Batch of 4 targets.
Target 1
Amino acid sequence: MASTIVNAGPIQGLDYVGLRPAKPLKLNSGRIQIKTRPQRLFTVRASDGDVPIGKTRLSDAECEAAVVAGNVPHAPPAPPKPAAPAGTPVVPLLPINRRPRRNRRSPALRSAFQETSLSPANFVYPLFIHEGQEDTPIGAMPGCYRLGWRHGLVEEVSKARDVGVNSVVLFPKVPDALKNSTGDEAYNDNGLVPRAIRLLKDKYPDLVIYTDVALDPYSSDGHDGIVREDGVILNDETVHQLCKQAVAQARAGADVVSPSDMMDGRVGALRTALDAEGFQHVSIMSYTAKYASSFYGPFREALDSNPRFGDKKTYQMNPANYREALIEAREDESEGADILLVKPGLPYLDIIRLLRDSSPLPIAAYQVSGEYSMIKAGGVLKMIDEEKVMMESLMCLRRAGADIILTYFALQAARSLCGEKR
């Protein structure tokens, strides 16, 4: 309902619009002479049409004087109270002072009081690369590819940057012929990962590049460390190899090296090795609480890195353990980690919150391949709304305490946040 201003009529021979003279005032000796005239009353009448509310063109002082004189314009009436449906019981109000729903009753209020935010800057985009020129789809991870490092990788990074994702982490599929029991290809300065880093840094100098520090993509045994003949994973010997791998990645231009191997003492050894080579500026994101999870299956298909025998339970954490994550976090902090990561993400929200509450360091969460593939499969089968579940899952990781999220949804989610649908 709009309001219409009703003109009170002309005053002493002057034509008025509202209460302001249509004729310009005369100037005398550079000064404006204004003759005081009595105020004319005006009324505001409600209208059912869509006519916009007119302006009286009164000064602030004139409007205030009119109100003081009792000439108060009428505003539209308050809307009537909506009626409840027939049959709604009539009951006395509950004797409660606090009604939390008051802060949820409109989109504007919900937005104003939202405690957790999500933006493309929170995402780190995991990208699989290989030596080929074609982008090869990964069957168990719909929408994900092994990207050709010279072309597909650069194009995918460009798409991500267009929607605000400027951090990536690289995972290589290494040719079997280059794998051996000690994973020596991991520290080849001209290997797949160092070449890809140099290419990306040449094209996008401000891109933040995370790397994976572990031997499983390079090991003929498929384990994160060197395997003794009795099946034991050697800890200190593996850490020696990881230090050389991290230095090779830093030399190529990596911004953050990320040991995912779960060997004891590797964060301190990596910090010492990086500093000794002049890479004090390179950060370490430690896979602090990496669990021996069943959610990694699609990832291992993507890199063809399944263990040749056994499992990884002697170095990755038991999914039943909670307090043990604190032990790992305290060790990594004391050894010089810059970021603490929890993997997987959604099934371990309690661990993310535990580290968030106990450490001042940034916390990362890895929404792993199994989480991604389940949401994708549910969407294809029309069992869930893929986009809504995707965004909710990412928000939950942030709410639990993650500062950054490694997620295969990074590009899709960033486009959604930017309002794009393509």
Note: Confidence is low (pLDDT under 50) at residues 1-44.
Target 2
Amino acid sequence: MEESNLRIIVSSLFMILCMFITLSIVAPQAEARAFFVFGDSLVDNGNNNYLATTARADSYPYGIDSANHRASGRFSNGLNIPDLISEKIGSEATLPYLSPELNGEKLLVGANFASAGIGILNDTGIQFINIIRITNQLLYFKEYQQRVSALIGEKQTQDLVNQALVLITLGGNDFVNNYYLVPFSARSREFNLPNYVVFLISEYRKILVNLYELGARRVLVTGTGPLGCVPAELAMHSRNGECGADLQQAVNLFNPQLVQLLNQLNTEIGSHVFISANAFAMHLDFVNDPQAYGFVTSKVACCGQGAYNGIGLCTPASNLCPNRDLFAFWDAFHPSERANRLIVDKFMTGSTQYMNPINLTTIIALDSTT
């Protein structure tokens, strides 16, 4: 009897061991989904390093808290939003599309096409001269697919793109570096603010439809943050630290219409392709109550000069805070890495107040079953 039981136990252990070995062999073959990034400096991870432009973050103290403590072209003291999303979905960080390292197997991870300074409109950021307009980012995406097709075939490339996660961040520069760049700018003479926003949304629609036609099926679209509350705007327009009224008004017109556009597109397509990420609410949480999130300030930038450290660029000559984790803003416009982490946490698990209609964790769970 004891011998019989021993055989059953040994046999069971052997089966469990075989299952474990099988799983350990299969698991590494399950690749993380590809990730593609489009947009401006909030998500650029180094494309502008390869361009003759002033819109770049390739020198100290940018990247001071990164693994190698070197500037990479990210407008951050460390990691930016795409890096942190890659972490969450279990993928290595995407490379800038212009990087010579982006070839072979690296292409299958995805690519970052973003370029600091750009907007929805092609005349946004013209002062930066040589940047990758959104129309060119989409052309690069098409070129990317041709490169991958040569590597793994057309059908597999289509599957890779259809199953990928896509992030697009546009709009802020269309106000800061276009409509409100100078008094009586060309666009402000052409449009009053409400009509300008309607124009922006109509142009954004074309971009998103193009992205869908190029195969994107899961697209996170961020609205603009509270632009009037960034240190640069406080330095120029604030007397007592209050947010700039004009830019806040612009954002409050733009974001709801963007959400409406995404809902319309999803209805037309018949699927939740476009996911709205409420960057305004995500930022405003720690702008309004920085201490609740462990920050000492959401008004003063860590790196800069002048009022609120909001004047000019972050350079080796700038004031630099000793502990970047205590500052919501890294420079005059961009969140610190720690603030970016809080934002990405909302991407992952945020309620419909932040992510509409579903958050990224739900997307991953849904997509894993199809």
Note: The chain has twelve helices and eight strands.
Target 3
Amino acid sequence: MMTRSMMKFFSPSSSSAIYTTLSSRLARINATRHTPPPPPKSSRAARSLTSFLLIRATMSSSSSSSDAVAAAAAATFEKPRTVVKKLLAESQPEGDGATVRRSIGRYELRNLDPFLMLDEFSVSKPAGFPDHPHRGFETVTYMLEGAFTHQDFAGHKGTIGTGDVQWMTAGRGIVHSEMPAADGVQKGLQLWINLSSKDKMIEPRYQELMSKDISCAEKDGVEVKIIAGEAFGVRSPVYTRTPTMYMDFTMQPGSQLHQPIPEAWNAFVYIIDGEGVFGREKASPATAHHCLVLGPGDGLSVWNKSGEPLRFALVGGQPLNEPVVQHGPFVMNTHAEIQQAMEDYYYGRNGFEKARHWSSTA
């Protein structure tokens, strides 16, 4: 996605013709086999990765049963993760007539290594995200409702519908469009995942996963679609170059979940629908459109104490611990690399050879 707010990153930083012309061009834009994460360094983390425990879904009315469940929950993780930051993603206009709710990537949370941006988008024809470039990271588009069509300058074209996922590695460079493929409102989540310095200039690639092919599991009132990573002993086939877990949980009223997360990873929750208690059983409930940044620990506990289903995405990733320099849709490690990316896009070289003579048919 290339959004209107990103266009400010292309303001000319010098009087050079390259930057002036490139800024003018960009202003006309209306708007990757699975490798498991590396083994944990401690036996405690190893137990976390292999112990996928779910405590019983309903609470007994007796105080002794409640105490037993609470004790079992407390024993699930040696270092439970709690919510250390809570952000409400408010609607804002983006792209060509689209609306997004941005959590990661805004002023209060510029990034959460290795994650660069998270948008919940809502788009209706003729709005969308016309032709725009990317370099240096991956985009993961997960459709919640409706369908989107993708085209790029290498000839790739496809449509993803409700529940489908496109995992795109931009690498050294891609120019593409993302536009609604159906009438009505199209909704989804788009996550940007950073690439390490050694991977930023790899060839672009795609992994498109239809909803029927996404790994799923269910137990005691909790359902999960496993886009990446492992839950309840079920693993996704998606390859994550930057080690990542991405799961879509739906919890029925009265259920609870205890999901391990690799201890060295950063993680967050984005609530899609409903209301839940995260981290500590006595914590205040969080509602839809909130992003919850999780503190350190080996797992997350969640309780649905409401009378309605709770749906949320749980995302975690191994930090890269590298400098992040972002200029709109280009994410590199140094300012010199950003300047090179802009020149490559302008001149049509080093991965952008087809950019000057291509436009989508959307």
Note: The chain is about 15% helix and 40% strand.
Target 4
Amino acid sequence: MFSTQFVLTFSLLLSLPILFLLAPRFLPPRHPSVPIPLPDELDDLSLFNRAASLSGPSNTFSHLSSKSPKLKIAFLFLTNSDLHFAPLWQQFFQNAPSKNLYNVYVHADPSVNVTRPKGTVFEFRFIPAKKTYRASPTLISATRRLLATAVIDDPANAFFAVLSQYCVPLHSFEYVYSSLVTSTTFDLTQSPSESAQYGGVRLKYKSFIEIISKNRSLWKRYAARGRFAMMPEVPFEKFRVGSQFFVVTRKHALVVIKDRTLWRKFKLPCYREDECFPEEHYFPTLLSMADPNGCTHYTLTKVNWTGTVNGHPYTYRPPEISAELIYRLRQSNFSESYLFARKFTPDCLKPLMGLADSVIFRD
């Protein structure tokens, strides 16, 4: 006869394969899902409250009536490495008709030694930053930090473009500015009433953010924190996905900064990290729920998802850089052109600079 202890031990050994298969549901989440430290949360809350206090009627950006507005575009760079294409962006900004049409802000992961390019528009534009991890809510916090800082810094900031260190411009500054601020034909999805002008600028503006409601992995992404973790604030039918690189209006920047409800859900740790990309879920879901008609549902940053590796898009390398590539990356079914593109290896800088004057900045 076998002892009771032997039987229990043998049964446990037999169950180990099953426990192994179920482990992701019960084991503590891995590194990227570590909760955001309370001091970081409190720092952010103070910053966001300051920015939210600027949301009076004169600061909300939805309709304009000034005959000579000095609207600015805030370029928000989110990076955890050197700004590889700083020389290209420097030329982009130098060619602007006025320095009073843009501002630059950089959130650089403080745990990485990021060079501050001397003598460039980037040198003194680094904001107080916190550590970030890919596929984690820290990227949401970093983006919100950039938005809040830009809102506080300059009330003329009307559009907020989120970019990475691997993004490059596809057009001149003038083309980008006129497309966002003055053109009545740039957004091919706009109705005639939405694209109407007064005093040389459009009366109504939308945010250019990708919002996708149909995706094969949508349920897996939604349930990555647990089947009912997002309820009741975010029912599955309201859950959306999209690119973390977008251009939003001041009105929508304030929506993001003032949110507390959805943030409590999207900062929860995931137990399915292969399906958990909070930065690709939070912004599309929030703005889709808050103002779906105020968003174009598409992004202005071209990304090639052919040959995706570990969740990363296709990465272009120097031999591929050509005028034909730039022209191809510009092509869009929703707007007259994409304005930015990613992802490029750092050594693409030289061939891109070679095309700057003759192709990229020649619209």
Note: The longest strand covers residues 72-79.
